[in-house]
Amino acid sequence: MSRVQKLRVFVSQRMNAAVEEILTAFENIIAKYEEEAALCREVISRQHALLCALNQPHIITAQPHVLELMAHVSPICWLSQTDTELFPLFYV
Q1: I need a surface site. Which of 12, 56, 63, 88 has the fewest CB within 10 A?
Q2: What is the pTM of this model?
């Protein structure tokens, strides 16, 4: 084999080795990004569920002793539960 052919074989082997290293690094980066994307999707899903839960109104009837604690919350409407007691409805 001539020197040029030996040089060609050597360069070809080094280039193949470099390509393999680059592709391995690329595969590792893609795997890392896919893992991060999956975690982000889980976080987004949990946040979406929390946001949906917050957007649904919940009705709470407050007892008289609770009314004193919740005096800073303005009632939306009043509901008469008995003839002598009034209980406010709050949207939370």
Answers
A1: 56
A2: 0.48
